[in-house]
Amino acid sequence: MTERPDGGTRRSPMKAVLVAAALVAGAFSLVFLTRSEGTPQRERREPLVPVKVAVAVRKAVPVQIQAVGTVEAYATVTIKSRVDGQLVGVHFREGQDVRKGELLFTIDPRPYEAALKEAQARLERDIALMDKAERDARRYAELVAKNFVSSDKYEQFRANFESLRATAEADRAAVERARLQVEYCFIRSPMAGRTGRLLVDEGSQIKANDDKGGMVDISQITPIYVAFAVPQQNLPAIKTHMAAGELKVAAEIPESGLSPEEGTLSFLDNKVNSQTGTVLLKGSFPNTGRHLWPGQFVTATLTLATRQDAVVIPSMAVQVGQEGRFVYVVRADMTVESRKVTPGIAVGDAVVIDQGLAEGETVVTEGQLRLVPGTKVQVPEGRPPA
Predict the structure, then answer these.
(1) Other beta carbons within 10 Å of 342
(2) Which of 306, 259, 304 is nearest to 285 (CA)?
(3) Strands 186-188 and 216-231
(4) CA distance 281 to 229
């Protein structure tokens, strides 16, 4: 304290501030002790972790193998000419469907028709000579029997007849060959199918069996093949199920919105590709709607069998940890436990669980990153979906 001029005393301001602070601190301590001793503290609650869940279901699951396949024509034929000549007629359009036996091309037949007439005339001449020689041989046979002529004379006429008969047979073959040459001038489709790009134009000079290329390609697309390769590890199962019965194959055109085409497995290659370790398969499809087209890429699915009573959950529920694959199972008290599982075959966006999970159990499908065993979770609408 300090003395005032009038002889009284005055308090220090600093000391007054310290006294006030001490009073406030004491009041707070009194309040805290009072609440601590007389009023219980509110229990702390950990926040719930929101997750999405799914229920394990038991159902029949097809055992399938998927692979990328390529559509192949059921049969493809390259049309070539069998005679030389000028192309005087093209009787179809590019990309047109043609029937078996339908006329495609006409090559100028006049030179071959003239050769046919010449061969026929030669045949008629030699037949006439053969007939005369035959009559002479018969007449000399009677004379020999009566000893009017020598046997040498008869043998000469007999040999002449046999020679002319052989010549007539050769002439008949020449006529048939000439007739075929005329028929070859009219090129017809050997099968029903769809024509490709026209490789020659009307008026072109055509060579027989030209190695440079054909005149047009024809592909049969109804029915049609889908070829696909699968790993060699699947070969024993495929052979076993093929022996038991016909196997179904589905072909899906990616991003087309069309339903998969249904067919059957029709071909298993007789060897494994040593470079890729795969074996080639082919499925046959009716392709009545012509959705499958040669050269097209599709997703081929081979169904081997149907597995009954399989436990299925969404694939996204399965996690990978240090001890292998596991799932988070939601218990009745809404806490989670980590459960080791053995996944089996995949079925679209789902997976079969061979061991570790039972039907009706609830698993977490989204939100696993925030979970540890014992964490309380919150699911949509407060309960797992049925």
Answers:
(1) 12
(2) 259
(3) unpaired
(4) 6
The alpha carbon of residue 262 and the mean position of all alpha carbons in its chain are separated, in whole angstroms, by 11
For 97, the enclosing helix (H) or strand (E) is strand 97-98
Map tokens 């719930």 to a residue: 48
Residue with tokens 């009038």: 6
Q: List, in order, residues 6 or more apart from 183 with CB less than 8 Å away.
A: none
Q: Which positions ≥6 away from 91 have C-beta within 8 Å?
A: 102, 103, 104, 105, 106
pLDDT-derived band at 149 (thresholds 50, 70, 90) equals confident
Judged by average pLDDT, the poorest of 19-28, 127-136, 242-251, 280-289 is 19-28
CB atoms within 10 A of CB 117: 12
Distance, CA of 304 to CA of 301 (rounded, Å):
10
Q: What angle do CA 379, 385, 386 make, to 5 degrees?
A: 155
Tell me what the mean pLDDT of segment 234-246 comes to: 93
**Of 359, 368, 377, 361, the residue nearest 325 (C-alpha):** 368
User: What residues does 284 pair with on adjacent strands?
Assistant: 225, 264
